[in-house]
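User: I'll paste a sequence; please echo it back and then give the predicted structure.

Assistant: Echoing your sequence first, then the prediction.
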Amino acid sequence: MRQMEPREIKPAAADQTVRGLLAMPLAQILPLSAGTLHQDPGCPECYTLIAAVQGNATVSSYPRSILLEAGQVMALSPGYAWDLQAVSECLCIIVRLEGDAAGRLLELSSSVAVFRCGAAVVRENILPLTVIEDEYGAVSGEAASARAYNLLVKLRSEQTAGELPELVESAIAIIQEEFPFLEGLDELAERLEVSKAHLSRSFSRKTGISPGKYITQVRISYAKLLLQEEDASITYAAEASGFANANYFAKVFRRETGMSPSEYLEGVPRRKRSRLQNGPALW
């Protein structure tokens, strides 16, 4: 897995109507070494989500102290200060949400709640914002609000469906982080130390799609972001997204979107590039 750097995302303010419904004023990506303490004074108007994407951490906030295990998400009501201390080397993602819809969708019966699963949902909705920020310089308030809504709806859905098995959580984490470099299901299964058939059955049963289909969806979504750059190259988008060549990329792109990469380029708004120095950002 590639080492992530600490990151703070501050989307632009959405218009007043959207902001009143659901807004994401801040998201933080925190890789922490064992014993590291992170303190936060809390926000009087914001709900806070703390996701343990990898590793374990202790979260202390009046009146509770909770061991947050890998894959879990803790939700805090507005106005509560909290401390986060890494028990082991870990990666946490912090999200602040405000607006009427945040409270309704979270449905907290007390000041603190723990979702037994959902860290992968937080990850898959927050990491794409780093791509937008790196490539285009800013995240719009409307884009952040859309991600926040998707995050909360999926978080509730996964909580209702039950906890994902560790195997599936691990597979999702590897795919989201390393999709440009994965050789395919054989490599993924080997790294997870299971057979390809067992991985496919477990993944499909819990997510509704095969792991191969999920890899493809992540790659196509990333390629679409790259194709929005003003000097976009289909060849570059194909290679950076993990496809073997531009011809295969074009075939898969048409199958997934109903159009060719060239047709997509003709219709998509173009933006100025701000490419990362160390290669493509990963979801």
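Residues 272-283 have pLDDT under 50 and may be disordered. The first strand starts at residue 7 and ends at 9.
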